[in-house]
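User: Here's a chain of 205 residues. Predict its fold as tokens.
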Amino acid sequence: MKKVLITGGQGDIAKAIAEKLFLKGEYEVKSPGKDLLDVTNIDSVTKYVKDFIPDVLINNAGYVYPQSIKECEIERERKAFDINLFGVFNCTSAVLKENRNAMIINIGSSAATKIHGTWSSYCAAKAAVVMATKCWAEDGVYAVCLSPGRTATKMRLGLYPHEDQNTLLKPEDFAEIVLYAINGRYAPGEHINVNLQNVGELIHA
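Assistant: Prediction complete.
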């Protein structure tokens, strides 16, 4: 059985991926929350990875705190980079030290290529993850980046409580694309944008 580690395990996307993998019955899945795996803490990451050496790492942990750069709390911005970018580096590095052939699937965001005036740290971090994915592929790692668009998650509901949920991508549909990545459908370094408008086409491609 392939061993799969999903970071940010308390989120809706992580739960949807874990459920899909469980139903397949071919994977041993660990999907810890930040209380068990703090992606910003190298000691926490190293210990967890040594205890459970994955064949597949899904870097899913994320954090966004909208604020204008004109009056921002810089520690909030630092936290966004620590989780969304350095957390990806921490986990990927730790996993590849234990398993050089591990597959890396980075969960990006459409914010990597779309402008959000008060999301600058989140957008910048996600854009960096896209480029890191491409660099790792050139470095001989099987790494792909899957970027969901507007998705029906708790995090988004907190940001946009009055949004029409019918206009959002479903986590379980995005999870199907993650399974395709695990099965090697996408070339190393690929960046796949996934949204409500194209997910059906991607699923049935």
